[in-house]
Structures are given as C-alpha cells and as structure tokens.
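At your convenience, could you comment on the folded chain following this short note?
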Amino acid sequence: WAGASFMHCALISMNEGRYEDALDEINRSLSFGTFNHKAAAIKGVIECLLQNPTDADATMLAEVAADPFNFVCLYMQQCRQGAGWERLSQLMHQSDCNYDDLALDLVEMGLEEEAVDVWKRSLQQGCASAMSLFHLSRYAGKEEAAQYYLMAETGSMGTFFPNRLEDIDTLLHHVRENQSARAAYLLGNIYYDKRQ
C-alpha cells in the first residue's frame, strides 16, 4: 500500500508544480515496488519537467525496455525527440481505449495540453469514441471545446462502454455545463452497471 500511496502523493505534487517533492515521492514509491511501470513512467515525466534530460532519457529507455507498451514513456520520448509517433501509433492499434488510457494518464500528471494532443491524434486516426470526444471537449481550449462537444453529442456512439472514474467525472461535467443528453445517457449506463 505504501508504494501506491507515495505514487499518488507524487501525482498530487506534480499537479501543484512541486516537482522536487514529486521526484522524492516517486522514488519512495519505486522503493516499495520496482516493477510498477506506471510509477517508472511518472518518474521519467518528472525528470523531464525538472529539465533533466539525461536522467529522463535513461529512465524512459529502461522502462520501454522492460515494458514495450508503456505508452506514457513512448509518448514523452516522441515529444522530446520530435519523431517516433508512427511506432507509438502502430502499438496503439487504433484503439480508442489505448488513446484514452494514455491521455487520462497525462491528465492525472497535470499534462493537459499533452493529453489534448493525444485525443486530437486519435481523432485524426479515426478511432476517437464519443467518450474520447467528451474528454477532449473538456480539456481543450474554449475555442475548440464547443466543436468537440458537438461532435461528441451528435456523432457516432462507436463501440465503447464508459467505465472509468474519470469518465464519470467528465460526463457529470457535461451534464452540468451543457445539459448534455448523451452524457446523461452514458452516465445512466455507468450507474446502472455499478448499481449506484
């Protein structure tokens, strides 16, 4: 439990801009479980944010060697090097779930601009679900948000079922802010599934 606790403390510190504290907390998390691939990815991101490219590259290369499907590390490497999106896109198999997982991990780390980039890429790849578009609408800038919201509300539903806590939060946001009928419908599906 301590490893997971320190990892979430690191995420809180990242969102508050306290990257030195976050690095200390993520190192403590990794001391309790060195095979926590999410914690290792978080460490690489923190090192990037601390402007420590040598350590960040070493952490991310080691993590990708251990877990070739660590999308966070692959994405951050792609951002830093300006290339490599084709490989990452290939590994994601045009799955809206993979794009959403990556983007929501980035949101959790306080990297909303990067998350928006991932959702826009899923849209370009033709694999964004209505849920992806609801998330994109929530985190995109005001100018773009209305466009993505309209796509989420009126476009194809696709083949997905929202089941993440983040999905509930985003759908509640759209029900409150936009009186979204589709968001209310999807939220009702989740609540019915969970019997809440």
Notes: The chain has a mean pLDDT of 92. The chain is about 75% helix and 0% strand.
